[in-house]
Fold:
Amino acid sequence: MSGLRICAILLAGVMPVSCDAAAPPKAPVKAVAKPAAPAVRAAPQSIGVFRLDRAPQQGSISRGTVPPDTIRLVMNGQDVEFAPDGKFVIGFGRDFDATAIIVAYLGNGQSVSERQAVAKRAWKIESLATVRRYSQPDAEFQARRPGELAQINAARRANIDSNGWRQQLIWPAKGRISGFFGSQRIYAGEPGSPHSGVDVAGGAGAPVVAPADGVVTLAAASPFTLEGNLLIIDHGMGLDSAFLHLSKIHVKQGDVVKQGQLVGAIGATGRASGPHLHWGMKWNNERIDPQPLAGPMPLGQ
Structure:
C-alpha cells in the first residue's frame, strides 16, 4: 500500500537540536543584572501528525484532527469516527497496549500513519490473603442479569449525535472521592474485577448533574441487581457516562441534556455498601477514568 511517510513527530516537551556549524567565539561581554521576566504559561502543544491534545495514557482519552482529505480513520485495526470538521476522540482503556497505531486513509488512495506510545499507569492493587471473593450469584440474579445486560449493551450501541465529547468535563457530584478507577483486589489469590469508575461519597440525596452535553440512552425503570438505579448519557463519538446507585433519576430515555443539568440524586441502590455515586465512562469498548478528565474536585467538598 502506498503511503506518505512521516519523518518526524514533534512531541510535547522535546526541544529541537541545532545542526548548524559552531559560530566563531566573540569577545567577552560584561554581564549586566536584569530584572526577572514575568513567568509566561506555555500554550498547549498538539502532539504528532494527528495533533492530539494530550499524550496517550492508559485510562484516558485524546482528541485530535485528521489530515485533509481523510475518508477513513483507524486505530489498532478498529475504525474511529470523526466529525465533519475533522475532529475526533480516541480512548485508551486500563490495560491498553503500549502502542497505538493511527492510520488515516485519504481520498487519493494514499495513507498517513503514526505510532504513538501509550503511557502505563500504576494501579492500586490490594491483596486480601484471607478473604475470599463474593459468593456465587443467586437464582434471582442469574434470571434477571441477562435482561439488564441487554439494556446496557443496547444503550451503548446507540449512534448519538452530540458534541459533549468536545467539552471539558465537570464533576457530576461533589464530595470525597472514595473509590478510584483501575484499583483491584486479590481475594485469597483470586483477582477481582478492576474498579471501572470513580466513586464520590456525596451523601444520600445529593444532586447529580450531567458532566457534559449528551442524550439519555438508558434511565432504569427499576433498580438493576448490581447498578441499582442506572442512568447512561451518551456524549457522542462513542463516549458515554454511566451513573450507578442513584436514589432518583430526573430524566428519561431520549432526553437531550446540557452540561450541569440536574439528572439524578446520589443513593445506595443495587450492590452498594452506602450512599455514593459511581461514575463510569467508556469510549466504545474501552473503560475510561473520569477523574483526570474532570480535574480536581472543587474546593470546600
In short: Residues 215 and 256 are 5 Å apart (CA to CA). Helices lie at 139-157, 290-294. The first helix runs from residue 139 to 157.
